[in-house]
Amino acid sequence: MGALCGCLTDGVQPSLYLLYGGITVLDNPDTRHLPMFTGLITDLGTLTTIEKPGDTHLPIKTGFDMSQIAIGASIACSGVCLPAVEKDADSFLAVASAETLEKTTNGKWQPGRRNNLNRSQTQGQELGGHFVFGHVDGLATLKDAREEGESWRLTIAPPADLMPYIASKGSVSLDGISLTVNEVGDDSFGVNIIPHTWEATTLHATKPGDNMNIEIDMLARYVARQMEYRS
Length: 231
What we know:
Blueprint: E1 2-8, E2 14-20, E3 23-24, E4 43-47, E5 56-61, E6 74-77, E7 80-87, E8 91-96, H1 98-103, E9 114-119, E10 138-148, E11 151-157, E12 171-174, E13 177-184, E14 189-193, H2 195-200, E15 211-216, H3 218-230
Antiparallel strand pairs: 1-2, 2-3, 4-5, 4-9, 5-8, 6-7, 6-9, 7-8, 10-11, 10-15, 11-14, 12-13, 12-15, 13-14
């Protein structure tokens, strides 16, 4: 099965990478030094303003101890991996390109928006959630949200081309949150949200019809690529 090895992310901090069947899934030189996240949200940040001197600058206020975060470190902001290019005692500045704005919910962000924040993993840290890379595959839509006991059941409609990568009891990232897929339909899937996750993330403020950043499980992506190659 899988194993872990440590690599350096361009001298900033060591990150963890997945070995699957003894072969790293990041053999591609273009992806070898990517940070990895767990999808377990550790803070809700707040976008304070939006500046556009060229690319879009997104100052985000956070409860993170910024003395422990290096300039250039990667932070997943509602599922989008963004570098912290500047920082002060209680905030950091992320920069989003035009492509990021076009392909993620970032393009609709407004000052005051809350963000699910997740720092990249380093060697020795506990691994929870699943392997999340902060590369959004598309925009999913929340179709329905209903209470079931103390939890919430969400029905999500992803882009049609992503449905083959989603499996019951598999993993998916929605707005950066690691979630287990409960059931899969023809054009949608369901997830169950426990009370803590509902309150500690932006899910409680997400309404039917809203878009969400979706990232499929990296393992599903590589298995599909292998099957395509072998056929």
